[in-house]
Amino acid sequence: MNAPQIDLTRVDGVLARHPKGDRSALVDVLHDLQAELRYLPEAALKAAAKHLELADAAVFEVATFYTGFHLAPRGEHICTVCMGTACHVRGAPRLLESLERDLGIKSGGTTPDMLLTVEQVNCVGACALGPLVILDGEYQGNMTSAKLQKLVAPIRKAKTA
Ligand code: FES
After folding, report:
1. pLDDT band for position 141 (50/70/90)?
2. DSSP 26-73
3. Which end of the chain has fewer CB within 10 Å, C or N?
4. Of the residues 87, 89, 121, 139, which should be mutated to test ligand 1's pocket, given the most ligand atoms within 8 Å of the CB?
5. Mean pLDDT of the chain
6. 116-121 and 77-82: which strand pairing?
7. Is residue 119 very low, low, confident or very high in pLDDT (cuts 50, 70, 90)?
8. Which atom of ligand 1 is closest in space to residue 131's alpha carbon?
9. Quick one: average pLDDT of 75-80?
10. pTM for the complete prediction?
11. Class for domain 77-160, per CATH?
12. 53 neighbors 22 (Cβ within 8 angstroms)
């Protein structure tokens, strides 16, 4: 899959919110860039390095160190299945399998139309809600494959409409 074109004015807009040369702001800058672009493309990392007066390698190192940063393009919507122990024993693997089958992608992947990314996480501390799916940051507890399909269907429908 080719990486989508990045609108560098959006990168500049994010960087403008942080003082030039403020190296201590690196993690905040990366968070803000990811919030804007949904992932951290190489061009954005290089722009951040220049803005903060850091070496490219230093910025890449931090971006690859934290699992919360994503260097590959992600979809407009993020569906995360919790695979922690409590969710696992309540059927999370079946949920993930049905989602992967439904969308035709594997966990960590994004649909070819860049609509949905499927990810997994190991416990977000809401075990009582398990099995848990997080769709675009919203916790959806006591999930079943049927409920998950219903949750995702309107997103897919909106895209094809
Ligand atoms: S195991 Fe899923 S929230 Fe804890």
Report:
1. very high
2. HHHHHHHHHHHHSS--HHHHHHHHHHHT--HHHHHHHHHHSTT---S-
3. C
4. 87
5. 93
6. parallel
7. very high
8. 2
9. 94
10. 0.80
11. alpha beta
12. no
Quick check: helix, strand or coil at residue 12?
helix
Q: How would you list the strands of the sheet with 116-121, edge to edge?
A: 116-121, 77-82, 133-135, 138-140
Sketch the domain layout of the chain as residue ranges. 8-65, 77-160
Cα(90) to ligand 1 centroid in Å equals 10
Pocket, ligand 1, Cβ cutoff 6 A:
82, 84-87, 123-127, 130, 132
Is pLDDT above 80 for 73? Answer: yes
Tokens of 89: 């024993």
Task: Please measure the distance between the N-terminal and C-terminal CA atoms of the chain and give it in whole angstroms.
Answer: 24
Instruction: Kindly give the distance from the C-alpha atom of residue 61 to the centroid of ligand 1, in angstroms, as a whole number.
Output: 29
| pLDDT in the model for residue 151 | 94
CB atoms closer than 10 angstroms to residue 104: 9
pLDDT at 156: 84
